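hey so i finaly got around to running the thing on GTP cyclohydrolase from Candidatus Enterococcus ferrettii. pasting the sequence first so u can double check i didnt mess up the copy paste, my clipboard has been acting weird all day
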Amino acid sequence: MFETFDANRSRYASVGVVSSLPGELIDSIWFIIDLDLKGLIPLDNMLTFDLVNKQGHVTMHFSQEGSEVEMDIDLPFVYSSEFPAEVYAYDDGNRQTILLPNEIRQR
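ok and heres what it spat out for the 3d tokens, dont ask me to read them lol
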């Protein structure tokens, strides 16, 4: 059995994510997983992050299916209506990828 979201495994973002989010926001998702979530709660292999507009800045809302634990993390980045409303972080045991909702259905 593997430990989900081990920072020592390869990490990627899909083409859809890279073309719709700035690198700082993509990096922020990995930081949130490593610094705010790992060790605090058991993580499944699929995490959900909603991108919320909070007074013109991005708030990442974390949740995972089957868990009552949710968390909002305010970030210093300006929000854009062009950002996807939701992204997923997926760990298949070998690599970890941030995906858009329509990309996860293709797996």
